[in-house]
Specification:
heterodimer; A: 14 helices; elongated; B: mainly alpha; 4 strands; 71% helix
Chain lengths: 316, 441
């Protein structure tokens, strides 16, 4: 800020000096105003054009996101919300300006790859074949393919690719664990799940923010980075987070759609679909039917806090 | 006959001829400089400073929005050198235009060296246009008799009490030189991109007007300020232009980014499995070539390019892909719906309204123009033809020639009813040129 205005003031000084030279010693008089102002005016014009194109560009980027969200009615507005939440979370995590930029864009675009997932898979089929699950898990890598030619998004590519990695290394597409996962991805993973939980779904009402936080906290150290979960808790103390409610029509349209960001729904699919993550080599989670286990905790249930859902699903 | 005249710049390969012409002018100027009366020692220093600044200006070329290259600092310094008449209060310089052009040659060639070393391409026709423009300024200012048997160079003495007349005369000289540059560049683009020359010139003048004003003013400023300040005026008075250059570079940068984003958007359908690989990119390349051939302005060509890239985006809203992604084969009602959905998605940006209008009409048959008097945008008609051709030819490398022939035949069957005959003619011209290039290579 200071350096910027410093340079600007030196610039004003130089231009004033040029003006004086031209008017006086060079004897040009009033016409010097025209000559000096021409390059400055053109510069101003170019800056205005730049601003307009910049705005146009941002609108177009968000259209890219909207186009994808029309494909999956349960995702309307999701990208924009998690971009805002991720930006808030960057503050307690002390991220630098550039990282925050990369984070916000990665959050906006984390699901663009979903356009490459066949529409029928975004609905919840009765049975999931391993091929179906694999197709769905391709979306994070596919998103990178889609936007990698946009130069200014280069910093966000890793964030998009790894946003479904898990802290314990059981995520996709690369099975990274702990600090190997880019921070941007770890933040998006938490924000993503939190927004999914606080959104009305056909099969359950939205969790209240504190209950959703509890769900996330149960998965800390397994699915999520504990520091990032703590950042989410801090953010929720400072900001209000409205739940995203849906009316009857919207719920109806969502019926049968699978929200892959919802940790509870995903764990169910995961648990009932052997073998699970074909993309990852090494021991995968043990497939285990959950049909006769207690259903995942519901906001109304409240007493399941001491039995983490991840535990239930992954128990041998 | 008309088309023969239209294609004249291309046929003469003017974009190759311009650099040759420049080399001839440069050689002549060097010869004239050697033959001219001895340049005093003091002037050598001044000329050296100019050569260095021109070289630095050439190294710091900028890419204008739209992709053309220019070197504002080099041009401004060149004009200033052409119009230098007094350096310091007492020292009058009287070197000829030959010397000016020789110094410019040295500066510009030196400025091209780093690019050549990096093996990045130097646009010879743009460089030639800049060079010729400085040469014209030098001859105009130093040798062309304008009043009372004297050129502007010697007239300056009699205008010592009315310096603003000097200033205006210098702005005029730079203005004419800039027009010469625009003229040369327009010849080159008309020749390279097979566009009508007149269209290229109008675009060049319109787009160059802003930067041109800054350049003419800067050249004049430097030439005037050399009297009180000496040759120091050159770097000092380039400062406002540096700011201009910076602003334009940023503008061009965001335009480029914008283009990248649109291209990424265009691949949505491809990655979703709705369209064949690179279909939008191929349709866009073909559409742009046809648009240029039909004399569309740069502004309209850009809208056309974006619309062609996004023409299938409406398919994203489809539940299941059309077989092969070929909208051409889809039922008319489906085509209309895809066009409408696509326009809807694009309109949501709030900034691509022109593109949305083009997309809306892309599926409408040409007969609506003739029978109902409807006004279909030219860009829509172009995309319709380009899309049909690409759908018909498909990807098959093998049998391409036969597929090409049958595609053209299919399109000919729809001539006048489905497709605009004028646009189909443009398609055939563009494809013939491509075939010629492939055949020659």
């Amino acid at each position: 800020m200071v350096t910027n205005s410093g340079v600007a003031y030196i610039g004003y000084g130089v231009i004033g000096f040029l003006f004086v030279i031209l008017w006086g010693p060079a004897d040009v008089g009033w016409f010097s105003a025209v000559l000096i102002l021409a390059p400055l005016y053109v510069a101003r014009w170019a800056f205005v054009q730049y601003g307009e194109e910049q705005r146009a560009h941002e609108r177009t980027l968000s259209a890219l996101v909207t186009a994808v969200e029309t494909k999956d009615p349960s995702a309307a507005g999701h990208s924009g919300r998690i971009a805002a939440l991720a930006e808030w979370m960057a503050e307690p995590l002390s991220m630098g300006t550039q990282d925050v930029q990369a984070l916000v864009y990665a959050a906006m675009l984390h699901d663009v790859g979903k356009v490459g997932v066949p529409t029928r898979l975004l609905r919840r089929p009765r049975t999931w074949t391993p091929a179906d699950v694999e197709a769905l898990t391709h979306h994070s890598a596919m998103g990178v393919v889609l936007v990698r030619e946009i130069e200014f998004l280069n910093g966000s590519l890793a964030g998009i690719r790894h946003h479904h990695e898990r802290w314990d290394g059981l995520g996709y597409p690369d099975g990274l664990a702990g600090d190997e996962i880019p921070l941007v991805s770890r933040v998006i993973a938490v924000a993503d799940a939190f927004d999914a939980l606080t959104t009305d779904r056909a099969e359950r009402p939205a969790f209240a923010p504190q209950q959703a936080l509890r769900q996330i906290e149960q998965r800390r150290g397994r699915q999520f980075d504990p520091h990032v979960v703590a950042a989410l808790a801090t953010v929720l103390e400072r900001h209000d987070w409205p739940i995203t409610s849906a009316d009857e029509d919207e719920l109806d349209r969502m019926r049968g759609y699978l929200d892959h960001d919802d940790p509870i729904a995903w764990e169910q699919v995961w648990a009932t679909t052997p073998p699970l993550r074909p993309a990852v080599s090494g021991p995968g989670p043990t497939p285990h039917p959950v049909a006769d286990e207690p259903s995942p905790p519901h906001p109304a249930a409240g007493n399941a806090d001491d039995v983490p859902v991840a535990e239930q699903v992954r128990a041998p | 006959m008309r088309s023969a005249l239209r294609d004249l710049p291309s046929r003469l390969r003017l974009h190759r001829l311009l650099p040759v012409l420049s080399i001839a002018v440069a050689a002549g100027a060097v010869a004239a400089a050697v033959a001219s009366p001895q340049v005093p020692l003091q002037d050598w220093g001044i000329l050296l400073v100019f050569a260095v600044v021109i070289a630095v200006g050439e190294v710091n070329r900028i890419v204008l929005p739209g992709g053309r290259e220019t070197a504002p600092m080099s041009l401004a310094a060149g004009y200033a050198l052409a119009m230098t008449w007094e350096v310091g209060e007492t020292h009058r310089v009287e070197f000829t235009a030959g010397v000016v052009v020789a110094v410019t040659t040295v500066g510009m060639l030196a400025g091209a060296v780093p690019a050549l070393l990096r093996r990045s391409p130097v646009r010879a026709d743009d460089l030639a246009a800049r060079f010729l423009s400085v040469a014209v300024a030098a001859i105009l200012f130093r040798h062309v008799v304008v009043w009372d048997g004297q050129p502007l160079l010697t007239l300056q003495e009699s205008w010592s009490s009315t310096r603003w007349v000097t200033a205006i005369s210098m702005v005029l000289v730079s203005g004419i030189a800039l027009f010469v540059q625009a003229f040369c560049v327009a010849l080159a683009t008309a020749s390279r991109d097979h566009r009508p020359f007149w269209r290229s010139l109008v675009d060049e003048v319109r787009q160059g007007a802003g930067l041109g004003a800054a350049l003419a003013a800067s050249g004049t400023l430097i030439a005037l300020a050399e009297r009180p300040m000496g040759v120091v005026a050159l770097p000092v008075f380039l400062i406002p232009l540096v700011l201009t250059q910076f602003a334009i570079r940023r503008y061009a940068g965001i335009r480029e980014t914008y283009g990248q984003t649109i291209r990424a958007l265009s691949r949505l359908t491809e990655i979703g499995g709705y369209t064949r690989r690179d279909h939008p990119a191929r349709v866009a390349a073909l559409s742009v070539a046809m648009g240029r051939d039909l004399g569309m302005s740069d502004r309209d060509t850009l809208d056309l390019e974006y619309a062609a890239l996004l023409h299938d985006i409406g398919q994203v809203a489809l539940r299941e892909p059309i077989p092969g992604g070929a909208t051409m084969m889809a039922a008319p009602a489906d085509q209309d719906r895809i066009a409408r959905d696509g326009a809807g998605i694009v309109r949501q940006t709030g900034v691509l309204d022109n593109v949305a209008v083009i997309l809306e009409s892309q599926s409408k048959p040409y007969r609506q123009v003739r029978e109902l008097g409807e006004d279909l945008p030219l860009a829509s008609r172009i995309i319709k033809v380009a899309n049909a051709y690409d759908d018909l030819v498909g990807e098959a490398r093998a049998r391409r020639a036969r597929k090409h022939a049958s595609a053209i035949e299919r399109i000919h069957l729809g001539l006048g009813y489905e497709y605009d005959p004028r646009v189909v003619e443009a398609l055939i011209r563009v494809l013939d040129r491509r075939a010629a290039v492939v055949g020659a290579g």
